[in-house]
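Q: My collaborator sent me two sequences in one message, no labels, and asked for predicted structures for both. Can we handle them in order? The first one she listed is below.
A: Yes, handling them in the order given. First sequence, followed by its structure tokens:
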Amino acid sequence: MLTELKVNEFVNLIASDTPAPGGGSVAAVTAAQGIALTKMVTALTIGKKKYAEHDGLMQEIASEASTLTAKLVDFVNKDTEAYNGVSAVFSMPKATDEEKTARSAAMQNALKAAAIVPFEIMQTCFDALKITEQAIGKSNVNAASDLGVSALNLGAGVKGAWLNVKINLSGIKDEAFVNEYTQKGVKVYDEACAISERVYQAILAIV
């Protein structure tokens, strides 16, 4: 399991000549780091008299952040598994027409799975950005910069995941599927990137 590797082991694996883990898994790790920072900020705020009026909100954000962090960590493995599903198709036989048809169908299914996982990473980043924005001005000001770094990591996660959605959509012949995930992806991308930039600019004005 990728998520059980030490940091240096994971980084060295990425740097090797194996194509996975690749950009999708890295996007998930980046995003997980982001929302983990948001969780940290809530931990540094909860119980502080100065922020007592926001204690309930911080508790809610902390709970949601824990759930989202776990999801993004899980996507580190899922994205590589999806890529491996695509790679496995290349070893399928293609000597007969029947084998070629089966191979083609398997590839289409594998590409769809490989597009859906990074889209779900994008959606999770979007959810994480929404709760991160709620903490601005209501959390420990000494950790304000960490919210900014959270927003940057989550924004990078969205952008990286979107590239992985697009490259897999490019090989899918199902036009309805491609149109659906293109439209949904653009919407999540635009909204998430807007929040990421908004949070970053708000933090710049604070620190």
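Q: And the one she listed second?
A: Here it is, processed independently of the first:
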Amino acid sequence: MEDRRILIVDDEHDLCEILQFNLSLAGFTTDVAYSAEEAIGKLNENQFHLLILDVMMPGMSGYELGARIRHDSVLGSLPIIYLTARDSNDDILTGFDIGADDYVTKPFSIKEVVARVKAVLNRSASHIGPAGISVNESHKSVSIDGTEISLTHNEYDLLCFFLSHRGEVFTRQQLIENVWPRNVIVSDRTVDVNITRLRKKLGRYAGNLISKVGFGYFFKD
């Protein structure tokens, strides 16, 4: 199993221990922060694939931390699951408005939490490229090693498509059918030009976007 690192942020120590134990049994690597402020330090120092976040904590709330993450150019696409006793419809809507990928209310079933973690990671996996490539769906932006790059609409859609189907080879015609609008006439040459431009913007990851002579293109981790 590919290692997936999860940061649990909650001021309840016993709950954190329970989550750590069960997520570790499920094959995940976990770390804990007991406040939003501590979580910021760990997020800046380590790479995580998912954040489990409480709402009511001393100091900065989980909502504030979630909003801060969503506006961060590097961390903006990090999946977030709120795990909280705040269970009113307004609370849940607030969480999703901020950009939550899921919202679980306490008390909860550990099996349900693990299942939801797996589901969110499966959904987000298609947008995780090599460690230095980050795609923020909300802002339609891409960062390379923490620096946002400027992509055209077609270049962005091409990159997301390749990341969603890593290792699969696609002909130019298949790329036209899956990436470009149906009512737009696109030539093979247009595909080649867009891929060439995209490669240049990917910097040290240009070599991950590969041409397979006689077949087409694919993205390799």
